[in-house]
Amino acid sequence: MSLPPGFLDELRSRSSIAQVVGRKVTWDTRKSNQGKGDMWAPCPFHQEKTASFHVDDRKGYYYCFGCHAKGDALGFIKETENVSFMEAVEILAREVGMQMPARDPQAQKKADRRTELAEVMEQAVQFYKLQLKTSAATEARDYLAKRGLSEVVQERFEIGFAPDARQGIWAHLTGKSVKPDLIIDAGLCAKPNDGKQPYDRFRDRIMFPIRDPRGRCIGFGGRAMQKEARAKYLNSPETELFDKGRSLYNHGPAREAAGKGQPLVVAEGYMDVIALATAGFGATVAPLGTAITETQLQLLWRISPEPVIALDGDVAGLRAAQRLIDLAMPMLGAGQSLRFCVLPEGQDPDDLIRAQGPEAMRNLVEGSKPLVHLLWQRETDGKVFDSPERRAALDQSLRAALGKIQDVGLRNHYAMEIKRLRAELFAAAAPKRQRKSWNPGGQFPTKGVALASTKNSLLAQSTDVEERVREAVILAILISHPDLLPDFLGDLETLDLHGADHRALLSALLRHPDETDRDRLRNILEAEVDKRAIEKLFSLSHVQVVTAARPQTDRSFCIRALSDELAKLQARRLEIEGIDEATSEISGLPDEGLTWRLSQARGDLLDAERRGSEQEDTDELDRGATAADLQRLIDGEVWVKKRR
């Protein structure tokens, strides 16, 4: 349908986005300023406790600093009501009292056709429900009773029965004067090529109506009663109403239940959904006979930011999880992922609930694994990494997998978690070297213990302080000059920071590499991390004296300062790695060898600091434990047992 010029502008000017959004959210009165139309609330698109969803009523736009959802009043109605754009226009026009223009004849004809088909499908629902009560459906009723589906449950899910007749639904609908072409186009009957009368697609099957989020019946799923049937489960064909790759079973009720706080569970089939829903998991959906598609994944994320995929614990279930991982990786983002719970082998949700009760299923859902752990399991299960080549192959496959993640900040977090899992795997596989902590006399510590103790008390502790100082300066410069972020992404993505606040701020910065407006970035960081964390950062004395952390400072000067701090931070960490390596091998080195190794580490540090000093030092940081401390260790030969 085409709208006349100016219609949408007038519609937007007449409407208040704050009123439209206000029907779905609860405003944060402490943060909102109603007089200025500056409104804040927890986001309706993802689960959160803080008010990161912002509505500017004067400009007519909304934006979530958490999940990055954005749009105008029409976009909000479209997303929250799951309607088309034109349907959103109609809803908003009715609210503000505007008359919708006459539809384009072709579009009107198409809409009317879909309405007619939906009415035919509704008649079919009622026909199949009545057939379930007949004598022909005795076996079907026995099966449902055996599966524990009471009459109340059957009514709730509108379960029916298609009789074993060639023209059961056909005769019923044509007898009610329904046009034959509507019956065929709705997917209820098929017309043979030989010119004979159309025949029912569903025969001798238990029928499950499939409804869209608006509640319209768009298709059916049928379970065969005969073992020799060509397909155990049969879905409606693709029609003007039904596209199985874009639909979910139990979509509408699941969305409502998820909105009330229930976890969204994705099961494999109709019976799984019904079993879970009747056991208290109302927010349960299922794909329609195929692997989850990209469109279905987007539909799931509209309902919940972290759907829980419930899989059978067999080979087929694990393979389905692996396929889903590959599909989801490029689409992941902050607050938009998947979790997985694997059922005991040979059991579906109904079996588990019957055997151990709903609590067993609840424990599985609550203990579901994040996607990154399933990825790691896929790449490592059943494999042996006893050679450099095999380890290199693992690294290569993991890099390829992580490279699919588009969100830079999220990719950085995945890399850190994979690094941790990798360290655990190889640490467990490595042989443990036995060391003696005391010499035979039992009076003096060994060389290794003496050096480690000295290093921990002097070098490591002061290094930790210095690293925190440099990290704070780096973060402050980036927040004050967000346009520098794209130039340093490569260095920042691999940077591992101390403390939860530092890590959270860096992660938030990496999620917004294109945000160059300083004030807007500050608002984003306050919403995603914590306002107090930013205030604490800029209140530090060593940050306040840094010229580059001030907004008005020249950009080229800030680039040099940021490069300098990153170089010095890297140099310090390289030095510590050198000392750690020397310490780990001390038991096999003579005193002269150890002295040489420590001297080499000191030399590396001096070289790195000389390189860093070629740039202008902007803040005169206290270096803490520097090369002089290390030299004192060497000159004093602290590892040598002193004679009394």
From TrEMBL:
Residues 262-346 form the Toprim domain. Its EC number is 2.7.7.101. It catalyses: ssDNA + n NTP = ssDNA/pppN(pN)n-1 hybrid + (n-1) diphosphate. It is an enzyme of class 2 (transferase). One of its GO terms (biological process) is DNA replication, synthesis of primer. GO terms for molecular function: DNA binding; DNA-directed RNA polymerase activity; zinc ion binding. Contains an N-terminal zinc-binding domain, a central core domain that contains the primase activity, and a C-terminal DnaB-binding domain. This is DNA primase. It comes from Litoreibacter roseus. The gene is dnaG.
